[in-house]
């Protein structure tokens, strides 16, 4: 009998993970909790929320699940891995004491400072008045305010003046827009440069990086508008050169894994390194403790390895035996959102044209926010609805293919950025 695998989550990232797991000859059955309409084509969706640890543990035991892969940040930071391990279940992801790397910006900044990992200068505050006072005296703008805890990728504010600082402090610390995530905030020096995302597999001792990627956080073309969970992505980024990679391996990637081990918080799972390529060299913008979304959607289609082999090596501490490989092809994903995202948007709108992706090699549509309505139609069920993804021999071809495929699918209020991958055109090499 083949393996039974449970994936926890229900977005585009989890659809990409399920899709990759489904390619493994070792796997016979996939469950996904809670899943979505697209995931339902590959896995049995289970109506259990990602934060319902007891129910998930019970389900995994009843179904004799061999391996659970946790896609989302909230359950990891909340301790889902600890709960599964205590029940004697095999699970992929960091324990609660290691997921703090993403769960607390204050912790991760302290770690980088202590172990001399390159990052922006910062201070941490728990009192609104102290933030205002510090920013007034600091007098360096722009300046960055970050909610300490998880805020759906949106708790970061770039302030150009004191008026914006005061509004940001009110939003994060007083009005509690992101709840307890704003109890403490990190005030950080603004870094200039190009952002790069590098996902990595970690087995507690060593780190093996995946192909590089580049996100587009802002809602509108030209990097205008509000911060979102990500409006599109491409992989690889030409700005992540061999020289940059060597520097990061030596001063950022392995030192982070070593630092977590030294702190008594060994990290097993995925570390997402959010980097800024500054004029002074690469620096860490942020850490995440799981696959990025939509980074997973451009990195996993390029990965040659069986994901089950790599995940099990991370759990068993044998990652050194894995030769992690990626294709030479490039990959681009364009997020189709409901107009109004990331603020107010309509749900329940029927989606047309999904069948156009059937049997089209190199073209994928990962579902981010979808469900079935009472008629059995696939409808929108979130701000980010679909991740239209395509491969190509190079970045320009992959981008052209992705935008061609964007036209294959439609729903009312469909919204997307038209300039995903614009940085490719600026690359001088």
Automatic annotation (TrEMBL):
<dbReference type="GO" id="GO:0005524">
    <property type="term" value="F:ATP binding"/>
</dbReference>
<dbReference type="InterPro" id="IPR016185">
    <property type="entry name" value="PreATP-grasp_dom_sf"/>
</dbReference>
<dbReference type="InterPro" id="IPR020561">
    <property type="entry name" value="PRibGlycinamid_synth_ATP-grasp"/>
</dbReference>
<comment type="pathway">
    <text>Purine metabolism; IMP biosynthesis via de novo pathway; N(1)-(5-phospho-D-ribosyl)glycinamide from 5-phospho-alpha-D-ribose 1-diphosphate: step 2/2.</text>
</comment>
<keyword id="KW-0658">Purine biosynthesis</keyword>
<dbReference type="InterPro" id="IPR013815">
    <property type="entry name" value="ATP_grasp_subdomain_1"/>
</dbReference>
<dbReference type="InterPro" id="IPR020562">
    <property type="entry name" value="PRibGlycinamide_synth_N"/>
</dbReference>
<dbReference type="Pfam" id="PF02844">
    <property type="entry name" value="GARS_N"/>
</dbReference>
<keyword id="KW-0547">Nucleotide-binding</keyword>
<dbReference type="Pfam" id="PF02843">
    <property type="entry name" value="GARS_C"/>
</dbReference>
<keyword id="KW-0464">Manganese</keyword>
<dbReference type="GO" id="GO:0006189">
    <property type="term" value="P:'de novo' IMP biosynthetic process"/>
</dbReference>
<dbReference type="InterPro" id="IPR020559">
    <property type="entry name" value="PRibGlycinamide_synth_CS"/>
</dbReference>
<comment type="similarity">
    <text>Belongs to the GARS family.</text>
</comment>
<dbReference type="GO" id="GO:0046872">
    <property type="term" value="F:metal ion binding"/>
</dbReference>
<keyword id="KW-0479">Metal-binding</keyword>
<dbReference type="InterPro" id="IPR037123">
    <property type="entry name" value="PRibGlycinamide_synth_C_sf"/>
</dbReference>
<dbReference type="Pfam" id="PF01071">
    <property type="entry name" value="GARS_A"/>
</dbReference>
<feature type="domain" description="ATP-grasp">
    <location>
        <begin position="109"/>
        <end position="316"/>
    </location>
</feature>
<dbReference type="InterPro" id="IPR020560">
    <property type="entry name" value="PRibGlycinamide_synth_C-dom"/>
</dbReference>
<dbReference type="InterPro" id="IPR011054">
    <property type="entry name" value="Rudment_hybrid_motif"/>
</dbReference>
<dbReference type="InterPro" id="IPR000115">
    <property type="entry name" value="PRibGlycinamide_synth"/>
</dbReference>
<dbReference type="GO" id="GO:0004637">
    <property type="term" value="F:phosphoribosylamine-glycine ligase activity"/>
</dbReference>
<keyword id="KW-0436">Ligase</keyword>
<dbReference type="InterPro" id="IPR011761">
    <property type="entry name" value="ATP-grasp"/>
</dbReference>
<protein>
    <recommendedName>
        <fullName>Phosphoribosylamine--glycine ligase</fullName>
        <ecNumber>6.3.4.13</ecNumber>
    </recommendedName>
</protein>
<keyword id="KW-0067">ATP-binding</keyword>
<dbReference type="GO" id="GO:0009113">
    <property type="term" value="P:purine nucleobase biosynthetic process"/>
</dbReference>
């Amino acid at each position: 009998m083949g393996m039974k695998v449970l994936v926890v989550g229900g977005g585009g990232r989890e659809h990409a993970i399920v899709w990759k797991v489904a390619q493994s000859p070792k796997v016979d059955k996939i469950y996904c909790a809670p899943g979505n309409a697209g995931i339902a084509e590959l896995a049995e969706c289970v109506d259990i929320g990602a934060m319902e640890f007891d129910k998930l543990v019970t389900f995994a035991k009843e179904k004799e699940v061999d391996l659970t892969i946790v896609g989302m940040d909230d359950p990891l930071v909340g301790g889902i891995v600890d709960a599964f391990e205590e029940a004697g279940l095999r699970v992929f992801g960091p324990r609660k004491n290691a997921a703090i790397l993403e769960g607390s910006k204050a912790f991760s900044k302290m770690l980088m400072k202590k172990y001399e990992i390159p990052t922006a200068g910062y201070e941490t505050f728990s009192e609104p008045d102290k933030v205002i006072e510090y920013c007034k005296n600091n007098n360096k703008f722009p300046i960055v305010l970050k909610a300490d805890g998880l805020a759906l990728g949106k708790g970061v504010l770039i302030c150009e003046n004191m008026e914006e600082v005061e509004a940001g402090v009110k939003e994060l610390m007083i009005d509690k827009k992101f709840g307890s995530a704003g109890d403490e905030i990190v005030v950080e020096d603004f870094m200039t440069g190009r952002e790069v995302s590098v996902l990595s597999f970690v087995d507690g001792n060593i780190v093996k990086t995946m192909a590089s990627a580049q996100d587009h956080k802002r809602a509108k073309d030209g990097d205008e508008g509000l911060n979102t969970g990500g409006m599109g992505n491409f992989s690889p980024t030409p700005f992540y050169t061999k020289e940059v990679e060597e520097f990061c391996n030596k001063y950022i990637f392995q030192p982070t894994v070593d630092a977590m081990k030294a702190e008594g918080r060994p990290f097993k799972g995925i570390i997402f390194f959010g980097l800024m390529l500054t004029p002074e060299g690469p620096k860490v913008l942020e850490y995440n403790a799981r696959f990025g979304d939509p980074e997973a959607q451009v990195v996993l289609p390029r990965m040659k390895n069986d994901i089950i082999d790599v995940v099990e090596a991370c759990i068993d501490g044998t990652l050194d035996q894995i030769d992690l490989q990626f294709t030479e092809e490039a990959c681009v994903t364009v997020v189709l959102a409901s107009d109004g995202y990331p603020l107010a948007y309509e749900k329940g709108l029927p989606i047309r044209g999904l069948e156009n992706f059937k049997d089209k090699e190199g073209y994928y549509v990962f579902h981010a926010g979808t469900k079935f309505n009472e008629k059995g139609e696939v409808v929108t069920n979130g701000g980010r609805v679909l991740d239209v993804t395509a491969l190509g021999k190079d970045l320009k071809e992959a981008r052209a293919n992705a935008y061609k495929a964007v036209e294959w699918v439609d729903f009312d209020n469909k919204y997307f950025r038209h300039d995903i991958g614009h940085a490719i055109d600026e690359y001088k090499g």
